[in-house]
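Two folds, back to back.
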Amino acid sequence: MKALPTTVSLISLAILSSILLPAIAAAEEWKFIEQRDGVVIYERKADKLGNHALRGVLESDVPIEKVISIFVDPDERPNWVYRVAEQEMLEAEDNQGDIWSERYWTRLDMPFPVSDRDYVLMSLYEFHPDDKKVTASVQSITDPRKPQSGGCCVRAESNANYTITALPGQERTRIEVIVESDLKGRVSDGLIRRAGPDWPVHTLKNLMERARSNGVKGDHRVQGWHQ
């Protein structure tokens, strides 16, 4: 059998490497940090904002229809997103379809001596019936309706991606969030790394606990996803 020319072999190797190496790197880049209150926390170098990205994962015996009912309701957000003290809806599409977006302003009540942070965010929600999951991308944006005030808060930036999945054969739900943030202002990297895991831990735990509350009606769009 005639050997392939060296040039062709090198090109093939380069193509194969371009496919495999990023996948290998992506699989290895998350580092386990801790497990607290059932939430498993990982860390890696941030892609866009700040120095570190955090990933939180929680599984709980709450049906997905109740989790989604709380998750997609903007009025419920202060009840589960950690440290949200105030919010204002700027623009919202009808949230009864399978994909929609909203724009809003929110303020986080930060612990002393850190000044409060505020954000202008756009959330894009999408239902994936074939995969029995719901995703949401929450990205910092600019909006002339909410310019930086320079008064109560420091305008910060954050990107978060949620994946909420119905586990088959049981009424259990898995939630994953990946978040990057740039708090701006004078906040040491050491303080961010020590306090950073608090946000995914409390946010995911609060969401599950709120969904487990009596009187929460399930979202009909995801009923039957555990089957």
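---
second:
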Amino acid sequence: MIERTLVIIKPDAVKRGLIGEIISRFERAGLRIVAMKMIRLSKEEAAKFYPSDENWLRSVGSKSLKSYAEIGKDPKTDLGTDDPVEIGKIIRGWLADYLSMGPIVVMVLEGNRAVEVVRKIVGSTTPYSSPPGTIRVITPLTAQTWRTWRRGRCLTSSTPAIVPRRLSVRLSSSSVRMSSWITHKLLI
């Protein structure tokens, strides 16, 4: 089934000159770029990429608490709280800061089972649990600080069901204007 998916190459990967490497991985997997643009978002625009509802905040905070437990760290020491919603708010703020810290590359990829293919190439949102060779482990985790390990190098939508909302919110920004390239069916 032919699908389209949204991929954003984040500021650190752009700064480090990894755009070509990342794109080539998608192209070698048979995906085709149907739209691409380099932009810079304000913090307010970047914040629109991440939900602010309590369920999402709780989910993100809970995943972070699990990660803290796995490595034996106390979240209160780093974050000042162990409440999952509050941690979700903190992380959402970090993500907006991070996404707006420099230029990003926004692209729409198309291909057979594009959503699944992109997720396999990109890897887990936790780099230490991603398989070797995925985009999220291009650089060693030891070179990252604790507060940036979750940030990854590529942003993708999590499920086809939320794609229309993500694309309409994120690509309607005056700085992006790629929505004409995207159909709101089976997108990520």
